[in-house]
Amino acid sequence: MTARKKYQKVNDDVVASLAEIVGSKNVLTGDDRENYSRDELFRAKPVIPEVVVKPEDAASVARILKLANAKNIPIVPRGSGTGLSGGAVPYYGGIVLSLEKMNKILEIDEDNFIATVEPGVTLAALYQAVEARGLYYPLYPGETSATIGGNVATNAGGMRAVKYGVTRQFVLGLEAVLPGGEIIHTGGKFIKCSTGYDLTQLLVGSEGTLAVVTKIMLKLIALPGKREILCIPFHNLHDAIRAVPAILKGGILPVGIEWMERDIISRVEQYTGKEIPLHGYEVFLMIIVEANSEDEFINISNLIGEICLKHGAADIFIPGSEKAKRNLLEAREKFGPAVHHCEEVLETADIVVPRGAIAEFIEKAREKASEYGMTVPAFGHAGDGNLHIFCAVKKGADASQEKAHELLIKIYELGISLGGTISGEHGLGFSKKVFFPLVADKHEIGLMKRVKQAFDPNNIMNPGKIFDL
Ligand SMILES: Cc1cc2nc3c(=O)[nH]c(=O)nc-3n(C[C@H](O)[C@H](O)[C@H](O)COP(=O)(O)OP(=O)(O)OC[C@H]3O[C@@H](n4cnc5c(N)ncnc54)[C@H](O)[C@@H]3O)c2cc1C
After folding, report:
1. Which tens digit of pLDDT belongs to each residue from 235-279?
2. Distance from the CA of 408 to the center of ligand 1, in angstroms?
């Protein structure tokens, strides 16, 4: 069986059957399919789905999957299409199954601190609903229009992973529909569970290749008191990176520790036209901390300040107003767009290395890049080792996509040799599957393929993503 195996086309009979299941208003066959032809994968070629279907409940999802399985038609689950690896794009044709109408928050259980939601609920809607009840979903995977289903399918991460981890740490249970139309329920409203294989965690991060997630139970926590930012300039990358484990050893658990260098800061300033405080220094750590009171915050910031100064920090900057804080966080969110604005970007990666290896990784990646006549602007999550790195040349300069691809392989090999892996949070999807064998051997990938076959013997679930069968 290969991902390129011959699938059936979606014909009029299939469209009629889909309309019978979800109503014709929820079946798109016209120009409006274009909105479902791409995600946010950089440089990706759009692919118009043969049909888009928008079920409103799990029973309809089950009937659609059963139909697709019987007719041998690919199914591509889709949340908001904010993914960065082509995961929701129907490269092998078939049905795009958009979960956008399954967007109800079904329950916020205030005693057990659990939200039960449909997959099409956006992060923004979840934040608003739980915070209105004095509860909190602490993960922040960057793009708040993304759906919870998409976050679960990609095991989304973001800026708060140092303290809270990633999506998988917050998923307690799932409802999911298998390609044969069976509906399964995994996990539940509990933390402890030693009852068979953990199917919940197997489905988290499976990128729509095993099943369609139709309900999610998410762990919540109490609202934190206040969140503050410390911006700490250093004279060099090594000192900044060495300060990170020292902060953690000091008994402080920041929400996030972001790292950025002068070249990125100046690109953001160029892109936004706004000056960033202390922009003359080589490197910054942006440390986000939570505290229950002003006194607690002062203690934490004094401790962080002391540790960083011992590790070569040049200064400690705490934005004095909510506006200054917001400006800094907004600037951080502009890093990616700013690099694209200022450079001819040829490749991008969200590699992860052990956090102590960040400086070595960056230095060696730069050496490699200069051998290829390219630059590798980078920034990222210093607290968890997840780096966003770009293979780029100056705007208008001669650029070879092939060379950039070669450089990217060297960069992945470098990260892997330091104990890292290919994708920290965006998933392999379509774009990174070719690199998967760099980090996983044939036994591991073979085992994953057998898991896939056990769930999806006809390979209709999001074929051609993660690996080809
Ligand atoms: C500006 C920007 C910033 C971002 N920042 C971050 C960040 O900080 N951290 C991070 O982790 N990501 C980040 N992302 C990436 C993106 O937001 C995440 O990957 C997100 O989880 C995708 O959600 P989505 O609803 O858009 O999913 P889609 O893009 O629609 O789909 C993503 C994958 O999930 C599958 N899928 C979707 N729903 C289901 C379902 N119900 N059942 C089974 N499979 C499903 C799809 O088939 C696809 O493989 C960012 C993206 C952008 C554009």
Report:
1. 999 999 999 999 999 999 999 999 999 999 999 999 999 888 778
2. 22
